[in-house]
Amino acid sequence: MENSQADTLSLVKRAVRGNIDAYGTLITDYQDYLYRTAFLYVKKEDLALDVVGDCILKGFQSIHTLKKPEFFKTWLTRILIHCAMDTFHKLLPLASADTFQAVSSSPGISPEEKWDLYDAIDLLPEKHRTVIILKYFNDLTVNEIAYAMNIPEGSVKAYLSRARRELRNFLKEDYIYAT
């Protein structure tokens, strides 16, 4: 069961002070989010689970460094991105479209269009791919993406703009709209 924002903040503060149970509860609340994000990078269930495991361990080892408890989710996302990218780069030659499964359903988009979209996202430069995944698959704000990637908000906006333009060029369709 997901906690309210106040409960989550309280759990984060307790976890920062070393409370293992509080950290475990937080991870339980965010496990689906972490898995979906990891899967978008590595495209295989077992690898996504490994990435999430690495993220959880690294997060626990460094929770004491979290300065602003209200940014726990984006802080944890930053760790996840690093773990996923490490795994993705190790597996880059092994990645193939047939291992990619749709993780979300989008009304009005055919399965073929989804595959084309996922393939096009794979073609994006790393930073562009990351901002697209965080913005459109995880619904993070520009501010949260900037924090997670440790870059200025202006860079996030520029990456989003360039990534959308590249996707339109790859897809020759306009079904990704600026928001």
TrEMBL record:
| Keyword Flavoprotein tagged | no
UniProt GO MF annotations: DNA binding; sigma factor activity
One GO term under biological process is:
DNA-templated transcription initiation
Task: Give the record's keywords alphabetically.
Answer: Sigma factor, Transcription, Transcription regulation
Locate the transmembrane regions by residue number: none
What InterPro entries has UniProt attached to this entry?
A: RNA_pol_sigma-70-like, RNA_pol_sigma-70_dom, RNA_pol_sigma70_r2, RNA_pol_sigma70_r4_t2, RNA_pol_sigma_r2, RNA_pol_sigma_r3/r4-like, WH-like_DNA-bd_sf
Q: RNA polymerase sigma factor 70 region 4 type domain location, by residue?
A: 116-167
Q: What name does this protein carry?
A: Sigma-70 family RNA polymerase sigma factor
Q: Which family does it belong to?
A: Belongs to the sigma-70 factor family. ECF subfamily.
Q: Which domain of life is it from?
A: Bacteria
Q: Which Pfam families match?
A: Sigma70_r2 (PF04542), Sigma70_r4_2 (PF08281)
Where do the RNA polymerase sigma-70 region domain residues begin and end?
26-88
